[in-house]
Amino acid sequence: MPNLIDSTASVAEEAHAQIRHDIIFGHLKPGEKLRLDQMRSRYGVSVSTLRETLNRLAAEGFVLAEGQRGFEVAPVSAENLHDIATLRTLLECHALALSFAAGGIDWEAGLVAAHHKLHQMELRMMAGDHSVKEEWKRYDWEFHRALIAACGSRELVAVHSSVFDKYLRYQMRVLTFRGETAAREHRELLAAAMDRDAARAQEILRAHIDGGVRHCLASGVLAA
User: Fold this and answer.
1) What number does CATH give the domain 2-73?
2) For residue 35, pLDDT beyond 60
3) Which of 66, 69, 21, 68 is nearest to 42 (CA)?
4) Domain 78-218: assigned CATH number
5) Is 181 exposed, middle or buried (0-12, 13-18, 19+ CB in 10 A)?
6) CA separation for the pair 193, 32 (Å, rounded)
7) Where are the domains of the chain?
8) What would the pLDDT profile of 144-198 be if each residue is shown by its tens digit?
C-alpha cells in the first residue's frame, strides 16, 4: 500500500509540474478552458487527479476555478503584471541583501556557474536563435535563484520562486528579451554580488525588472 500511495503522489506531482510549466510557457493560453476529458488524454492522468491538480494551481494563482463551469487558465493584465513585478522586486531585493551577507565561496561558485549558462543562452538569443527560449528562461531563473540562494530562509526562496514564475509567464507571453541591455544588467548583478555591494545590486535589479515590465507593455499584447 505505501508503494501505491507513493506512486499516486508521484503521478499527481508530475501532472502538476507539467501543467504549471505549460501555463508559464504559454502552451496553455490565458483564458483557455481546461476541459478535463481533453486534459486526461493530454497528460495521461485520471479526472480526479486533474481536479486535485487544477484546484492546487488555482490556489497558486495560475488557474481560475469556476465552480460548475470548470477551470480555465488565469487571465493576464497590465495591472496584474505591475503587482507581480512590485512583489518580485521587494522579495528579491530583500533576499539578495541577506544572501550577499551570508554567502561563501561555494555560493560564489554557484552564482558564477549560473551566470555562465545564462550568458550562453543570451548570446544565442541575440543571434536570433529563439529555439532556446525555454532554456534561456530556465537559466535566467537559475541565475536569479542563485543570487538569493544563501539568504538562509527556505520560505523566502519558495515565495520568491512562485512570484518569479508568475512574472515569467508574462515574459513568455510576449517573448520579452531585451538583448544586450538585459545581458549587461546580469553581468552587473554578478559583479555587485562578487563585491558584496547589496545597494548597487538592488539598484540594478529594480532597473532590470522595471525594464522588463516596460518592454512587455510596449509589445501591446496585454492591451489587445
Assistant:
1) 1.10.10.10
2) yes
3) 21
4) 1.20.120.530
5) middle
6) 41
7) 2-73, 78-218
8) 999 999 999 999 999 999 999 999 988 887 666 789 999 999 999 999 999 999 9
